[in-house]
Amino acid sequence: MMEGNMFGSTMWAGHWLWMLVIAIVAVIPAWRICQRTGFSGWMGILILIPMVNLVFLYFIAFADWPADKAGARNE
């Protein structure tokens, strides 16, 4: 049925570029959120892993943020 398709069963090169763009759009805000809450920015990469990203969001939402603790000491 797809014999005449010029892409065949291989991945189109633009597919990988599109995936990279989506990954960047998702990781940059997650990275900034992690930094602002006092966690390592590298935790933002967890947003790319299915199911782990949901656990990550709940963790960020309900964890005690190190930035809050640091702010309380400075007051």
From TrEMBL:
Keywords, ordered alphabetically: Membrane, Transmembrane, Transmembrane helix
Key word Transmembrane present: yes
Annotated transmembrane regions: 12-31, 43-63
Name listed for the protein in its UniProt record: DUF805 domain-containing protein
Organism: Vreelandella subglaciescola
Taxonomic lineage of the native organism: Bacteria, Pseudomonadati, Pseudomonadota, Gammaproteobacteria, Oceanospirillales
